[in-house]
Every structure is written in C-alpha cells, then in structure tokens.
Specification:
It is a single chain. This protein has helices spanning 89-92, 96-104, 107-110, 127-133, 140-154, 168-174, 179-192, 255-258; strands at residues 2-17, 19-24, 34-44, 48-53, 59-65, 69-82, 156-157, 176-177, 197-204, 219-225, 231-235, 240-241, 246-252, 261-266, 271-282. It is α+β, with helices and mostly antiparallel strands. Strands 12-11-10-9-13 form a five-stranded antiparallel sheet. A four-stranded antiparallel sheet has the order 3-6-1-15, with no helix packed on it. A four-stranded antiparallel sheet has the order 4-5-2-14, with no helix packed on it. Helix 6 links the parallel strand 7 and strand 8 (176-177).
C-alpha cells in the first residue's frame, strides 16, 4: 500500500514568543514492512535546524528560533509504501519461561526495555494480569495476543478522557483512555512479566472499508521483543497485530521518548497546540 500523509503541528501564542527550542521525531525508519518514497518537513517561520540520532535510534531534528513569533507550524509531508508484516512462527511458539531465560542472556540489549519509565510503572496493578497471561508454559505469541485482547475489551476508547500527564494508575482506575494510554498499559504488563517491549508512535489508516480506531493525531502501539531479535508489533486499540495500515515513525520506552514534537518556548503568554493528521491511500499503478 502507498499512503500520502500530512501531519501538521501548530502552536499559537497569546503573546509573541521570543524564543523556541524543539525536537521533532518525524522521520520514519526504513523497515522490511515500510519504505519512505518522499518526505519534506516544513517549519514556519524558518528556523536553524540540525539532526542527530537519539538513544532509541530515532532520527531527530533539533531546531531553534530566536526571533519573536506569534505562531509556529511544523508540517510533515510524507509518502510511504507499506508491506505485509510477517512474524517467525517458531519465536511466537517459544514458552514464556524459556523466552525469559533467553532475554536474561541478552540483558545488555534488553535492559532498558524492561525498566519502569516516568509514564510506565512496573508491578502494582500490572502484577495480576502479568501473572495470569504470561505464565511459564504459555506460548509467547499467544500470551501477547491475549494481552492485546484483554486491554481492548477492558478499556473504553474515550478521546478527551485523558491527556499526556494523566498517571497510568488513573487510566487503570477509569478503564478509559486513548491509544497512548492503551500502549502504556500494555508496556507496564509486559515489563512486569519480564518481556522486553517498546512504545511505537506512528500513523494509522483509520478509515476505509475495514475501519480501525484511530484519531486525527498520531497513533500508538507496542512492540514486544521475540526470541531471535524480531519485534512483534501489536495494537491494543484495535485488537490486532499491526499490518500494512500502520506506519512506524518513532520508538521509545514511553510516549515522551517517541513524541513527534516536543520542546519549550520563552514568552509571557500561553500556547495553544493543534495537531492534525491526514492519511490518504493512493492507487498503485
């Protein structure tokens, strides 16, 4: 499948900002399941920019603006081709107890993806589902699917019910949230169960004949590390393995690591943020 994507991030200030410094993680990685055909990132007003690779292997653009400005707009114009995702059956069938032993032998590679993060605590409310779903002889792939289905059936998708500062314990108590919250719940349970995992920020084709739940902004899902080194991407919001309608953009331990745009501004007023994503499937010749 080929998609044209327009991702707009627009800041408006109640009083002119005198300075702004931001990071943008908007460059998709090239993967077996996707390739970038064209991309243009437009920043208005123009700003000095540089690029670096963050600790999670995301290509990150840093830009700073020292001139006074009333608005700041970042547009990501992207054309990407996606392919079917395949997972190794043998790795999915490895029992959970054996998988844990294999992870322990690669602790230098898996350590960061097993630790709690500011947005994703380990233990607590996650302990019971981790114990019930990821028991020793259960095939790892089957356990991941059960976790995905459990979150989908237990939590209600409710836009506006949470924001990026809502603690995960509050999401668990309300049993409601958005894709970001569902991903954080999954990460907490996976890490409590000893399964290395990471947060994924990207885009999803929410419309179409087989509608998927998404939003007018970016989408979020999780990847669990399988024995052998393959990452298995699963979408709790839509209760499925990720496929051709998912476009990966950035990885991290949680939302904050993979946020598409983040930063600070200097000024006496407040800011209002508007984010819009439009994703259109193109006919391939």
């Amino acid at each position: 499948m080929v998609f044209d994507i327009r991702h707009s991030t627009h800041y408006r200030y109640t009083h002119p900002a005198s300075e702004a410094c931001l990071e943008a993680r908007l460059i998709p990685p090239d993967l077996p399941c996707q390739e970038t055909l064209a991309q243009k990132i437009v920043i208005a007003p123009e700003a000095m920019r540089s690029e670096f690779q963050d600790p999670w292997s995301n290509r990150t653009i840093f830009f700073s603006m020292a001139a006074r400005h009333n608005t700041l707009k970042i547009e990501n114009l992207l054309r990407v081709r996606t392919h079917a995702r395949t997972l190794p059956r043998e790795a999915l069938e490895v029992p959970v107890a054996e998988a844990r032993q294999l992870y322990n032998s690669r602790l230098a590679d898996t350590f960061d993806y097993l630790q709690p993060s500011p947005a994703v605590p380990v233990g607590g409310f996650a302990s019971e589902p981790a114990r019930k779903i990821f028991f020793g002889h259960s095939p790892l792939g089957e356990a991941i699917r059960k976790l995905t289905a459990m979150i989908h059936s237990t939590f209600q998708y409710s836009p506006g019910s949470t924001d990026v500062s809502t603690p995960l314990a509050e999401v668990w108590k309300r049993r409601a949230g958005v894709c970001q919250d569902f991903a954080h719940v999954a990460l907490s349970i996976l890490r409590t169960a000893g399964i290395p995992c990471r947060y994924v920020c990207g885009y999803i084709e929410a419309g179409g004949p087989a509608a998927l739940v998404g939003s007018l902004a970016t989408h979020a899902w999780v990847e669990a590390l399988l024995p052998g080194g393959t990452w298995a991407a699963t979408d709790p919001t839509n209760n499925q393995w990720c496929g051709e309608r998912h476009v990966t953009v950035a990885y991290g331990r949680d939302f904050d690591d993979a946020a598409p745009v983040r930063g600070t501004f200097k000024g006496s007023g407040n800011q209002r943020l508007t984010v819009r994503v439009r994703m259109k499937r193109l006919r391939e010749k």
